[in-house]
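Consider the following input, taken from an annotated entry for Tetratricopeptide repeat-containing protein (Actinokineospora diospyrosa).
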Amino acid sequence: MGPSPDRVKNCFYFADGIACPNCRGLFPVASFYPMTDEFAWLLRYDDRGDVLLEAAHAKRGAGEPNAAIGYLDEAIALGGEDRGFARVALADLLFELGRYDDAVTQLETLRTELPVFPAPCELAAELHTTRGDKQEALHWYSLAIANLPPHEIAELDQSTGPSCYANSLLTARRRVRRALGFAHDDWDNCVIPVEIAIPGHIRR
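Applying the prediction step yields:
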């Protein structure tokens, strides 16, 4: 028989509004909670990576960086795209803690890990932008674009092009290049101006 409902109610994940991956692994929430709107979301929240990232965010916000690091380490161990998100979150936290070398190590590992996922690279670019390192931000935006899957690139030629993910990355990269004083390159010329998505404007 699994743990009692009281144990789960007292679990810090539950207190933070997060479904505990440890508790979920022992028994289904539905076995002791009625299917009400209050608890139905717990049954839909079944991505362990997301749970760990949310837990780390909650612990960081609560001033418990060591606990946050622990959950990020767990998320990294899962692999996949969540590993990338966790490395960027961990690097950001380590920078905040003054552990510069450790933060750089996380980002360097992300840079060389395969496969490369665009979204964590975008987050790394945003992290460097926030820190005022435009050159590194440019590198990460370029890495994100270079690893977009073909269907994401193809969307640039569709009616949804102005609002697609590829155009968002291209636009952000061009913004950084302009801030650095660089002339437009081929990728900059692929940016679709947002105004063409406005009725009455024609794509050129």
